[in-house]
Amino acid sequence: MKSYLLPKTQLASWLSRVQADRTLYAPVADADGVLDWREVSDPAQIVLPPGVPDLPVKKLFFPTSETMLQYAYRADKAAVVATPPPATPFAVFGVRPCDALAQQVADLVFLGDLPDPYYQARRDAGTIIAVNCTEALPECFCASLNDCLTEAPGADVLLTPLDDAYLVAALTHKGEDLLAATAGDLPEATEADLARQAEVAAATAAAQTRKIDMEGVTELVRAAYGDEDFWKEHAEACVGCGVCTFLCPTCTCFDVRDDAISGRGQRFRCWDTCQFADFSQEASGHDARAHQWQKQRNRICHKFWYSVDRTGVLSCVGCGRCLRGCASHSDIAATIEDLKKQPVTPDE
Amino acid sequence: MSNPATDQRCHPCTLQNNPYLPHLATLTLVREEGPGLMTFEAQFQDPETAQTFTYLPGQFLEISVLGAGEAPFGIASVAGPGRPLRFSVQKMGLVTTALHGLSEGATIGIRGPFGNGFPVLEHKGKNVLIIGGGIGLPPLRSVIEYLRENCHDYGEVCIIYGARNPQMLCYKECLLDWGQDEAFDLKLTVDKGDEDWEGHEGFVPSYLEELNPPADNAVAYTVGPPIMIKFVLQAFDKLGWPRNQVFASLEAKMKCGFGKCGRCNVGPKLVCLDGPVFSAEELQGLPWI
Hints:
The structure holds 2 protein chains of 2 kinds. By secondary structure, chain A is α/β, with parallel strands linked by helices. In chain A, 34% of the residues lie in helices and 21% in strands. In chain A, the strands form 2 sheets. A 7-stranded mixed sheet of chain A has the order 1-9-8-7-6-2-3, with helices on both faces. A 4-stranded antiparallel sheet of chain A has the order 5-4-11-10, with no helix packed on it. In chain A, strand 4 and strand 5 form a beta hairpin. In chain A, helix 7 (217-224) crosses helix 10 (292-311) and helix 8 packs across helix 10 (292-311). The longest helix of chain A is centred in the C-terminal third of the chain and has 20 residues, at 292-311. Chain B is α/β, with parallel strands linked by helices. Chain B folds into 2 domains: 12-114, Translation factors (Elongation Factor Tu (Ef-tu), domain 3), CATH 2.40.30.10; 127-283, 3-Layer(aba) Sandwich (Rossmann fold), CATH 3.40.50.80. Chain B has 8 helices and 15 strands. Chain B has helices at residues 12-15, 47-52, 94-100, 137-149, 172-180, 204-211, 226-238, 280-283; strands at 23-34, 37-44, 60-65, 69-74, 85-90, 107-114, 127-133, 157-163, 184-190, 200-201, 218-223, 246-249, 265-266, 269-270, 277-279. In chain B, the strands form 3 sheets. Chain B has a 7-stranded mixed sheet with strand order 10-9-8-7-11-12-15, with helices on both faces. Chain B has a 6-stranded antiparallel sheet with strand order 4-3-6-1-2-5. Chain B has a two-stranded antiparallel ribbon with strand order 13-14. Chain B is globular, with a radius of gyration of 20 Å. The interface between A and B is large, with 64 and 57 residues.
C-alpha cells in the first residue's frame, strides 16, 4: 500500500481535503480543558497531546447513549421501528495506536456472527487516522502488551512524525481510498522514510518507564481467581465509581432502557459498568458479584482471561487511562505485577 | 416518528433482521398462577412469524412491555406452527410489574429465541430426570411436554419438583395431569407442609438423595433458585453421577440476549450465548453463585 510524506506545515490543508467529503473528528479541548473527541470545523482546534487524549475514541462508534427503537402503543395495539444509525462518512484524526487497536478489540464483541447494526453502521462509516506516539506518559504500557506502536492494527491510516514531516501510510483499503482522494501531489515515501517509522516506534516503546512482563498473564490471572484475600486487598479502596471502565477504550458493556410518555417512547442503550451495584444483580436480589472486590476481580479477569477465552486477544491495550483516572489509585499494571508475587492457589 | 423506510440516512442493517427489534405479539391468555406469579400466552401478530417461529426446550425470550422495558424469561411451551408461546412471570421489578398489569389482548414485544436450551436431541434413548424448584418449573414444562410428545425417543421420565410450601407449587393443573400420565413418575416435595399436605416434606436436594436415582443411561435437567441448584449438583456428586450427565439452567440479568451487552458473564462464559444450560462439568470452577 502507498505511503506519502506530508510536511507538517501542510497538515491543516491535508485535513481540509479529508474534511471535504466527510465529517472530521479529532481531540478538542472542552471548556474544562478535557480532551474529548469533537467534530472539527477548523483543523487549528485540534490538540494532539503527548500520549492518549483524556477520553477514549470508542464513543464515536459506540455513543454514550443512543436510541435504538422508537415506538407508539396503546392497550391493544403498537408500532415499533428501528432507529436508523447515521451512515454519514466520517474520519477521526489523532487516534493513538492503542486506541485504534482497542477498536479492533471492540469489533470482536460487536461484529462477528450476529453483528450489532448500530455499531456496524458507525464502524463502516468511519475511517481511523492514527498518529503515532513520540512520547510516553508515565502511565503508558502498551509496549508491554502489544505491537500497536509498530503495526497500528485497527487504524486505516497511520501518520508517524519524522522531523518536519509525517510519514502517511495506508493500512487498509479504506485508508487507501482516503489517501487516493486526498494525497494530491504529496511525494511518495522512500524506503529510508519507512525505515525511520520503525525507529520512531522503537524509541517511543523504549521511553515507556512502565514495563511489565506479560508472559503467561492469562494463566496467572486464572490461577489467582480463587485467592479472595488478594482481590480484597487490591479492591479495598475502590469506591465503585466505574471510571476505569468508562475511560477504558475496550470496555463496551451497556444497559438498555425505555423512556416513554403518553403512549410514545424510545428504547435506548447507554454505557454501563460492571462496577455498579445493580449491574449484575437480578430482580430477585441474587448477585454472583455482590461485593466490590468481586466486581474489580471481574474487570481484571475480563481484560486478561475472559476476553482471551472468548476472542483470542487481551482486552487491555495499555493506554493507562484507568490508572490515571482512578480516585483510589488502583493500578491494573501493578496488580499484575503483584499477582506474580502470589503463591498459586487452587480454583474455588 | 421517523420512518426508516424513507429515511435517506438509513443503514441497510437496520431494515433486515435488526436483532434488537422485537416481534409484536398479542396476549391470548393471562392467568394468575400462584402468589405473585402470572402465566401468559402470546401469539405473534405477523402470521408468517407465528408459523415459522421455533425454539428448543430450555431456550429463552426477551419480552418487552413497551414503555417499561425488556427482560428475559424461559419458555414454558413446546414449539409448533401457530402454537402460542407460554411463559410465567414472578412480580419482581419494573418489567415484571408492568407485565402483571396487562390483560388479554394487550400487545407485547418478543425477541428470540436465545440460548442453547437443554440438549434433548443429543439425549435420545436416555432416561430423563427433571428436577425443579419453585418457579423453575415453567421452563422445565417446555422439556416435560417435549418429552411427552416425543416419548418413543426417550426412556423413563421422572420429575422431582418442590417448593417452599404447598401454595407455592406452581402449574398445579400440569402437576395433576403429569401425575396421571403413565409416561411420568412425579415426585413432589415441600420444604414445609400445611395441615392438608400429605406428601413428602424436605428440600429438593435431600429428596433427590433419598430417591437415589440410578445414573445408568440417564441424564438430569434442573432449574430452580441458585442455592437449590448448588445443592442439587452436590447431591448428584454424592450419588456418584458423572458431571457430564447433569445439566442446570442458570439465570442472569441480561439486556441484549446475544452476547453484546456484557452483563451475564459467569467467568469467561456468557449465560445468553453459552447457556443458559450448562453441564455440571462446565460449572465446575465457574463463579456462577
